Amino acid sequence: MARPSRPESPGKRRRTAGERDRVADQRDSVADERERVADERESNSNDREVRLDRKESQLVAREARLDQRSQTLHEALPEILQREQEAIDRSQERLQRSEERLRRAQEALDRSRALLNRDAASIRRELDESARDLPEG
Asked: CA 45 to CA 34: how far, in whole Å?
């Protein structure tokens, strides 16, 4: 058999109601804290997204500058190569002129040596002839 329930006393009802209000207040406090943390996370997330968007914009701008630079270099490359080739050609012409001057100087030196050798031989012959013409003594 079931026990008949006793009616609650007004004091017990007030205590139960007070306890229920405290639990509801705690639940509201936890919910408020949870909402505050969620708002903080969202704010941090928004800040992070703003920073990342700014960083991405900077990287896009940098990539565009590098693309432009690359394009400029690519367009200028044939002109640069042509100037370099012209400089090489001028250097080779100067080298050829220098080699020609060196060859002419070497030929002049060789002619001078040949003249000196011929003069030295002529002088030796004359000395030999003069020595034969001297009386022996």
From this structure: 16
Cβ-proximal residues to 8 (8 Å cutoff; 6+ apart), any chain: 16
Q: What is the pLDDT of residues 33-55, one digit of tens each?
A: 888 888 888 888 888 889 988 99
Cα–Cα distance measured from residue 127 to residue 39, given in angstroms and rounded to the nearest whole number: 121
**Length of the chain as a residue count:** 137
pTM across the whole model: 0.40
pLDDT tens per residue across span 92-110: 999 999 999 999 999 999 9
Compute the distance between CA of residue 53 and CA of residue 59 in angstroms, rounded to an integer. 10
Other CB atoms closer than 10 Å to residue 128's CB: what's the count? 10
Per-position b or e across 11-35, b if 16+ CB within 10 A of its CB: eeeeeeeeeeeeeeeeeeeeeeeee
- For residues 18 and 134, what is the distance between their CA atoms, to the nearest angstrom? 159
